[in-house]
UniProtKB/TrEMBL annotation:
UniProt enzyme class: oxidoreductase
Active site, renumbered: K182 (proton acceptor)
Gene name linked to the record: gpsA
Record-listed E.C. numbers: 1.1.1.94
UniProt keyword annotations, A-Z: Cytoplasm, Lipid biosynthesis, Lipid metabolism, NAD, NADP, Nucleotide-binding, Oxidoreductase, Phospholipid biosynthesis, Phospholipid metabolism
Catalysed transformations (reactions): sn-glycerol 3-phosphate + NADP(+) = dihydroxyacetone phosphate + NADPH + H(+); sn-glycerol 3-phosphate + NAD(+) = dihydroxyacetone phosphate + NADH + H(+)
Residues that, per the record, bind substrate: K101, R246, N247
One Gene Ontology term, aspect cellular component: cytosol
Protein name per UniProt: Glycerol-3-phosphate dehydrogenase [NAD(P)+]
Subcellular location(s) of the protein: Cytoplasm
Gene Ontology annotations of biological process type: carbohydrate metabolic process; glycerol-3-phosphate biosynthetic process; glycerol-3-phosphate catabolic process; glycerophospholipid metabolic process; phospholipid biosynthetic process
Summary of the function given for this chain in its UniProt record: Catalyzes the reduction of the glycolytic intermediate dihydroxyacetone phosphate (DHAP) to sn-glycerol 3-phosphate (G3P), the key precursor for phospholipid synthesis.
Chain ranges of the Glycerol-3-phosphate dehydrogenase NAD-dependent C-terminal domain: 171-306
Length: 318
């Protein structure tokens, strides 16, 4: 079978390349025709994943109908802002695997949006998966979660290779939200790096950030234990300490008074921080690190004020 990969940014390109390295054919859909033409000619995605050759087993197209024709399911690998439009354009009989680590415009989960739009088979794929490493064939593990265990098992079987280990889960909310929240905590870790506040501060932000992630997961009906798996703690470790991470790098840039933009590549945590802060305020929930990050990225607080706010909270039990 040919794996259908919708989205030719860093993540979609890396996954298709990795599958191709192991002889698994795929079709990679790029939204912009000129990008598809360049990928076909250069056999490399120089804008989003330079240095990773596209194996011959990767077919490239800008025609969404052609990409999904005859497919049983597809991986949706565009940023979260593009997911509503992409879902709307897809046949509802297609199984959809949401791979973006962000939320819908109204703050809903993307899998919830897909179900609301009438898709019957919905899954999420999330884990510590830097495109830059997966595209080079370095070993990595991930989780595919779905309420439909058979669908999750089918996706697992199609994506497993000697360099990519796929676990299944039934906790869709838990797996999905781990990837969403870790981006905000990675932004906080980047702020710590940019302010040169040291290893102790970074460890504190990661640990208390994990607690906040778990608190939010539980509030959304997820299994509290999922936050300690690959899609939670695993991805937080991979992102908050990584030189590849755009979220961590964006935080570092803000702390240095620079633009958080990452060369046109998506920084999901910036939008997510605002959506989660809004939710926390509306529901009277305590997500102090999320709130501090949202206020810093919106310019309401300086990075130093954000740190002072967190350090100045009243004493409490751990
Ligand atoms: N890069 C990674 O290592 C990685 C790993 C796992 C998950 N993710 C997640 O996958 C998603 C995509 O990330 P990426 O790294 O591939 O992004 P990217 O910034 O590398 O590329 C984004 C791609 O999506 C396209 N795009 C932008 N807006 C679009 C829209 N409205 N509709 C369709 N296409 C659109 C862009 O043209 C570009 O090709 C994000 O949610 C990210 O958090 C990324
Ligand atoms: O570069 P980031 O910060 O978007 O992180 C990429 C992946 O989500 C890591 O698992």
């Amino acid at each position: 079978m040919t794996v259908c990969v919708l989205g030719a940014g860093g993540w979609g390109t890396a996954l298709a390349a990795m599958l191709g390295q192991h002889g698994q054919p795929s079709v990679l859909w790029a939204r912009r025709p000129e990008v598809a033409t360049r990928l076909q000619q250069e056999r490399e995605n120089r804008d989003y994943l330079p240095g990773v050759p596209l194996p011959a087993a990767v077919g490239v197209t800008a025609d969404l109908t052609a990409a999904t024709a005859g497919q049983d399911w597809a991986l949706l690998m565009v940023p979260s802002v593009g997911i509503p439009e992409l879902l709307t354009a897809l046949p509802r009989t297609l199984g959809v695997v949401l791979c973006a680590k962000g939320l819908a415009p109204d703050g809903d989960r993307l899998t919830t949006l897909a179900a609301r739009l009438g898709f019957g088979r919905v899954a999420v794929l999330s884990g510590p998966n830097h495109a830059e490493e997966i595209g080079r064939g370095l070993p990595a593990a991930t989780v595919v979660a779905s309420a439909d265990a058979g669908f999750a098992a089918g996706v697992q079987a199609a994506l497993m290779t000697p360099s990519f280990r796929v676990y299944t889960s039934g906790d869709v909310a838990g797996v999905e939200l781990g990837g969403v929240l870790k981006n905000v905590i990675a932004l906080a870790a980047g702020l710590i790096d940019g302010l040169a506040l040291g290893d102790n501060a970074k460890a504190a932000i990661i640990t208390r950030g994990l607690l906040e992630m778990g608190r939010y997961l539980s509030s959304q009906g997820a299994d509290a234990a999922t936050v300690y798996g690959l899609s939670g703690l695993g991805d937080l470790v991979a992102t908050a300490g990584s030189l590849h991470s755009r979220n961590r790098a964006a935080g570092e840039a803000i702390a240095r008074g620079q633009s958080p933009a990452q060369g046109g590549k998506v920084v999901e945590g910036i939008r997510t921080a605002g959506l989660l802060e809004h939710w926390a305020t509306e529901h009277g929930q305590d997500l102090p690190i999320v709130r501090a990050v949202a206020q810093v990225v919106s310019g309401e607080l300086t990075p130093q004020q954000g740190v002072a706010d967190l350090m100045g909270r009243r004493g409490r039990a751990e």
